[in-house]
Design goal:
This protein has 215 residues and is an all-alpha fold. The chain has two domains: 38 residues, Orthogonal Bundle (Arc Repressor Mutant, subunit A), CATH 1.10.10; 153 residues, Tetracycline Repressor, domain 2 (Orthogonal Bundle), CATH 1.10.357. 63% of the residues lie in helices and 0% in strands. It has ten helices and no strands. Helix 3 packs across helix 5, helix 4 packs antiparallel against helix 6 and helix 6 packs across helix 7. The longest helix is centred in the middle third of the chain and has 27 residues. The protein is elongated.
Length: 215
């Protein structure tokens, strides 16, 4: 299959997926054609089908890889022994992981509607698996009397939304670093579920954010 003049022989699936990710994130899945993806990487449109069945498969693959990497990274993350420590670790991890992948995060949330039903079901199962990790932390803390939670499902979804929301406003080189933002949000999440008579920082087993407050 012929390639455009100047294209490189080593063009591969990963390069095509990266181009698709950037284009989908910038312009939206519906506005990007396979021909446009091909032009981005410098190959003829027909060459894309050596690496993917169609555009829908490409979108699904991008989302699947993102979710599986998220789950694997969280599994490897140091978490601490207590539910409050694990909750703080989850908040820091979620913000750090997502800020490192802004395009993948945007795609994972904004283009779910573009997935075919069977692909949506598979991605939703991965999302629920990740949300379940947080729900288990919250349930353990509630059972131990360390958290006060009115509704487990609602609290889980609220925390996920709050943490993911950092991607909508955070900019590198601003007043706070990624780590500082992570510490502040860990503190806010701890306060959200702390018993009314407790100090969230004490329940987390550390003085979250104290070094930030001194700045």
């Amino acid at each position: 299959m012929a390639r455009k003049t100047g294209s490189r022989a080593e063009i591969t699936g990963p390069l095509i997926r990266q181009a698709a990710l950037s284009l989908f994130a910038r312009h939206g899945y519906g506005a990007v054609s396979m021909r446009r993806i091909a032009a981005e990487v410098g190959v003829q449109a027909g060459a894309l089908y050596l690496y993917t069945r169609d555009k829908q498969s490409l979108l699904f693959e991008l989302m699947r890889v993102h979710m599986e990497e998220l789950l694997a990274a969280w599994a490897a993350e140091p978490k601490g022994e207590t539910a409050p420590a694990r909750l703080a670790a989850f908040a820091r991890f979620h913000i750090r992981f997502h800020l490192e992948r802004p395009e993948a995060v945007f795609l994972a949330y904004m283009e779910l509607r573009s997935l075919a039903p069977e692909n949506f079901a598979r991605i939703e199962a991965l999302r629920q698996q990740y949300e379940g990790e947080l729900a288990q932390i919250l349930a353990a803390g509630q059972q131990a009397g360390q958290f006060r939670i009115a509704d487990l499902r609602l609290t889980t979804m609220s925390i996920i939304a709050m943490l993911t929301g950092v991607n909508t406003w955070y900019r590198e080189g601003g007043r706070l670093s990624r780590d500082e933002v992570g510490e502040i949000y860990a503190d806010m999440v701890a306060r959200l579920v702390a018993p009314e008579s407790g100090d969230a920082r004490v329940y987390a087993g550390e003085h979250i954010g104290d070094h930030i407050a001194e700045k």
